[in-house]
């Protein structure tokens, strides 16, 4: 394998309701993070996995993942971007392709990990998996008054894993200013082209209680 996968898993999961940090919430009896790491480890290109866990849970997460796959676990930060930077700093010499994958996208198929890695290997410095946007999107202002309608055909919903040539991701994090919600956004600021590949419905981000119910159902029918 020539790929390292960074797994930011240090978020609180406020939108999911009260409880444990999101990556540790159970989905069909196992934490989201366990589902996510199992699928990442099943991708043949993957050489190294580094998880960024909540600082208070680093030891527990190490124990949790030991039977799942060989992983390094580091303490995450207050923002997702800081968690990714901490994980990136822990990648050993070797892998020249780095993927960043949210623990919350617990049912992401190994095939998506492979297709993102392959697009980087083929020469793209930065790759994001995307789906078309199905809803009409409106921009709203004060008082929830609609300002305008965005041309949906030019929009994509972006998932993870996002893939990068290692040197490009490192440069993007070194240059980073205000925290962004994804790593490709940092790379865009460097002026490096970011290329889209087809995403997967199974890579949905478990964010709200509805998503957890949907993920349970997908697992029950064989995801
Ligand atoms: O909050 P959101 O759903 O955007 O989080 C995306 C991913 O980033 C989750 O897997 C979450 O655990 C992770 N995260 C993190 N450190 C933070 C905030 C979020 O690793 N401080």
Automatic annotation (TrEMBL):
Provide the catalytic activity annotation.
Answer: 2-C-methyl-D-erythritol 4-phosphate + CTP + H(+) = 4-CDP-2-C-methyl-D-erythritol + diphosphate
Question: Which InterPro entries would you find in this protein's record?
Answer: IspD (IPR001228), IspD/TarI (IPR034683), IspD/TarI_cytidylyltransf_bact (IPR050088), ISPD_synthase_CS (IPR018294), Nucleotide-diphossugar_trans (IPR029044)
Q: Which UniProt keywords apply?
A: Isoprene biosynthesis, Nucleotidyltransferase, Transferase
The record's EC number reads 2.7.7.60
Coiled coil, from the record: none
Record-annotated site: Transition state stabilizer? 15, 22
Where does the entry annotate site (Positions MEP for the nucleophilic attack)?
152, 205
Give the metabolic or biological pathway. Answer: Isoprenoid biosynthesis; isopentenyl diphosphate biosynthesis via DXP pathway; isopentenyl diphosphate from 1-deoxy-D-xylulose 5-phosphate: step 2/6
Q: Which Gene3D superfamilies match?
A: Spore Coat Polysaccharide Biosynthesis Protein SpsA, Chain A
Q: Does the keyword Transferase apply?
A: yes
Which Pfam families does this entry report, sorted A to Z?
Answer: IspD (PF01128)
Mention one GO molecular function: 2-C-methyl-D-erythritol 4-phosphate cytidylyltransferase activity
Determine if NADP is one of this entry's keywords: no
Q: Which GO terms describe its biological process?
A: isopentenyl diphosphate biosynthetic process, methylerythritol 4-phosphate pathway
PANTHER family given in the database record: 2-C-METHYL-D-ERYTHRITOL 4-PHOSPHATE CYTIDYLYLTRANSFERASE, CHLOROPLASTIC (PTHR32125)
Q: Which family does it belong to?
A: Belongs to the IspD/TarI cytidylyltransferase family. IspD subfamily.
Physiological role: Catalyzes the formation of 4-diphosphocytidyl-2-C-methyl-D-erythritol from CTP and 2-C-methyl-D-erythritol 4-phosphate (MEP).
Q: What is this protein called?
A: 2-C-methyl-D-erythritol 4-phosphate cytidylyltransferase
Name the source organism: Micromonospora eburnea
Q: What is the lineage of its organism?
A: Bacteria, Bacillati, Actinomycetota, Actinomycetes, Micromonosporales
